[in-house]
Amino acid sequence: MSFLSQAVTANSDIFKLGVIEVTAESGEEKFSDKETITAEDIDRYNRNDVASALNLLPGVSIQNLGQRNERLIFIRGFNSRQVPLFMDGIPVYVPYDGNVDLNRFTTFDIGQIDVSKGNASVMYGPNTLGGSINLISRRPTKELEGNLTLGMGMDSQFDDNTYQTALNVGSNQGWGYIQGGFSFLDRQSWRLSDDFNSTASEDGGIRENSGNTDYKGSVKVALTPNETDEYAVGFNKQNGRKDTPPYAGTDSSVQTRYWRWPYWDKESIFFMSRTQFADVHTIKLRAYHDTFKNSLMSFDDSSYSRITRPFAFDSQYNDYTFGSGIEYVNTWFNHHEIKLGFNYKQDVHREIDNLDTSTHVNTRPKTPEERSADEYFSYAIEDVYTPVDAWRFVFGASYDRQHRLQAQNWANTEMQSFPLSNKDAYNAQGAAFYELFKDFIVHASLAHKTRFPTIKDRYSFRLGNALPSPDLQSEKALNYEFGVDGKAIGMLDYGAAIFFNQIDSAIEEVTLDRSFCIAQGLNPRCFQQQNIGEQENLGIELYTTVNINDEWRFHANYTWLDRNNITNPDIKPLDTIKHKVFASVEYEPFKYLRLLASAEYNSDRFSDTLGVRVADEFVIANLKATFPVHDNFSAEFGVNNVTDENFAYQEGFPEQGRNYFANLNLRY
User: Fold this and answer.
1) What is the model's pTM?
2) Fewest beta carbons less than 10 Å away: which of 153, 165, 208, 272?
3) Closest Cα to residue 476, out of 430, 507, 445?
4) Quick one: 262 exposed, middle or buried, by C-beta within 10 A (0-12, 13-18, 19+)?
5) Domain coordinates in residue numbering, the chain
6) What is the pLDDT of residues 205-230, one digit of tens each?
């Protein structure tokens, strides 16, 4: 289902080998609790990165790891480590910490985003505690097709500060196809709201150290010898760099960091196939190798020129992941589609600190390479049972195993090894869908899901800010959902869902006592990843989309979320909001003009578990005008944060003030 577009089309222009949760061969989506963001949705709201695109959905809120300048998301109270990211069904999160900076993933080459909340298919593999996010690439449908986007952005003073270019080209010859894409986005800096009050490390105006650059290229080649079989090889490459704006809040205990990431690079190669035998047997294969390299430089001060003080460093990651999977689908039995799946993955993290470089003064000693590694096995079974047209049941179960292969730490002039152990996990889930009357679906689901703690969860000192937790246990969750989705009189989509998540052995970043931190040789304000006990998330989601007539279109969604730490109520829930509202109105007065207004409300949120740091509630509004000069050519101009709201997703890390954009779009 799609909350934004009134109906989900057959989507023949998406890479179907990358779709994990296929609900029907015909493309019918009525018996699914999977939510879809289409390429049309992304273009309509100009969501150029994955985080902002996901934020269109109810139940989703943005998280900003300000000290790292990483954009993550929460889904129904589950963070990005608990809701992993996939690209065409392949896991793409960083091996070390299970996160990935969603701002580094642009959306120019995405055909569709599938989001599952709480009840993600067991065919994804391990760690889908709170759901899954699958970015599905494009697939050409014509002999020659392409689109080109050129754009620029300006701050509130109309100084140009952002440039973007994206090109996608494809060809489908029937027996095979090729799809390629390239995108470039450069932001030199951005400007704060005029309502921002200056602090010790931020005087307002242009945000200090706020630039980033991202390149992305991809190519996919496939053979399609008949209507059912497909064999594809693909290659994706991302190169980027980013700055980290310093803390600009009022809490004196937060250490100001002067960080830059000279490179943030990711490279992937994959093979996928689907082969059908005797009409009732299908085998799907996938294999992949993914590398992730980045450099993080911490400087002495705002001159960003010296690495000499105790907290300064030059760290480089050289991580990689490789894996494979096989899925067997059987439709031999009437009304059943049975799937058997196996997934294997190995994550390797390699880190070296303080390499010499000619770009700055570095007096810190170089350290040997630290290496950590985990491997995962997942065995899964799933049955989709459709006894009659009005009913569908989906049952799934899996057994997952984590082997902790290696964990090193360089300390006191020697290489130390953390204790290792292996962990097992079991997952089971079921969902039921019933069409009570035409175009009105009632659905309910229950899922028992698990997540293994990452290498960083267990072993990282976080640059002297954290105490390691090598004995962390796996998180477990029971996810309940009941909902309805409907259509009415050909113009209205609507729906509601109530969900309840009971999380056991929940892992949370707990702030430790100041004197204890000092005694351990850590920074005075330190923390530890801990299994804090039982946690509960309760919430409601509502949405509606109304195509009033050919000229007017309205969409709105609302989320209410209540997170509670049952074991220790004094630990505040980090970075999540209780209320979120998103609404938009689109008006097309005549053929050559479309106007769009949208607004979003977020309630306040805690930025530490003590409740000292709080990011205030806010409302931001956006306007856009599109001029479709020709069926294949359009121009658009827009204003984001129209009221120049001074807002933040994390206390001390304010977001952009009013800014403008202009784009040209050409399609062939």
Assistant:
1) 0.94
2) 165
3) 507
4) middle
5) 16-667
6) 999 999 999 999 999 999 999 999 99
